[in-house]
Design goal:
- The longest helix has 34 residues.
- The chain is mainly α.
- It has a domain of 194 residues.
- Helices cover 63% and strands 3% of the residues.
Length: 283
């Protein structure tokens, strides 16, 4: 990715500003949405007896400030076009975003299908059309905002800062993957298994970082991240997930050791499936 070289203080101030607005604005948005939907504030951590679409919306609105502040910081603090957070090229490629979505789906759906076929007792059919349809609507809109906003920050803002020509690509990928994994360690599904869960999240972060550096755009990462979260919410949900789910199937706690191994194996496969075919754009 072509890296801007603004002064260090702009990156530091920008990062602090982004974090403050994300957390403060997100908390206000969450509380306001819960009150609007008549969901008691005491229900927010676990959402007992709350319809999945309501719970999902309450969680996801907290990412709207992040979705807005990163491009705005690019414009106001770095004095660069907001589009630069995604791509240095003239146009954002919807095709490449779709490619990222399809590539990650092509990896995850067969893996989930194999688990369903060979370990049927671990999965429960929980499909409820009345709950699923409004959940799907929220997932297709606000879930895309959530995953894209995370990409804006981790592989848009922080990765641009890291990619200053002083570090090799492998080091940037490792650091970026670790930064992506770190905040996920407070997710309820971790349940104290910090080592393997960290490896699992970091490996996905490394795959998306490598693809971003190779393509010089965030498009693949945006599509792939959305695919991962969308399938977790609609196809196979799991116990204590950070994101409320109305999935067709439900399973118990995650096996983080197996998840870490799978995530590592995904890295070369995802990069192979998303290799650019029209090389002229990436020269």
């Amino acid at each position: 990715m072509i890296t801007p070289k603004p002064a260090l203080w702009r990156w530091v101030i920008g990062t602090l500003l982004i974090l403050v607005i994300w957390q403060l604005g997100g908390a206000i948005a969450t509380i306001a949405t819960a009150l609007f939907l008549s969901v008691p504030l005491d229900d927010l951590p676990t959402f007992p007896q709350v319809e999945p679409w309501r719970a999902l919306l309450i969680v996801l609105v907290s990412f709207i400030p992040l979705f807005l502040i990163v491009p705005l910081s690019y414009r106001l603090l770095l004095h660069l076009p907001w589009k630069r957070v995604i791509t240095p090229f003239k146009k954002i490629s919807a095709r490449r975003i779709g490619h990222g979505f399809l590539a990650m789906s092509a990896i995850l759906i067969p893996l989930l299908s194999i688990k369903l076929i060979f370990n049927q007792s671990a999965f429960k059919l929980t499909f409820n059309l009345r709950e699923f349809l409004p959940y799907l609507l929220i997932a297709l809109t606000f879930l895309f905002i959530q995953t894209t906003s995370e990409e804006f920050f981790f592989r848009g803002w922080l990765l641009h800062w890291l990619n200053n020509g002083k570090l090799p690509t492998w080091a940037i990928a490792l650091i970026s993957g670790a930064l992506f994994a770190a905040p996920h360690m407070v997710n309820p599904e971790i349940k104290g298994d910090y080592l393997f869960s960290f490896i699992s999240f970091a490996a996905i972060g490394i795959a998306l970082t490598h693809a971003t550096l190779r393509d010089r755009t965030l498009e693949l990462a945006i599509g792939a991240h959305f695919a991962n979260n969308f399938l977790a919410g609609t196809l196979v949900g799991y116990q204590d997930s950070a994101l409320p789910s109305a999935a067709i199937f439900f399973t118990g706690e995650l096996n983080w050791a197996a998840s870490a191994a799978t995530s590592i194996a995904i890295i070369p496969l995802f990069l192979w499936l998303t290799r650019p075919k029209k090389v002229e754009r990436f020269q």
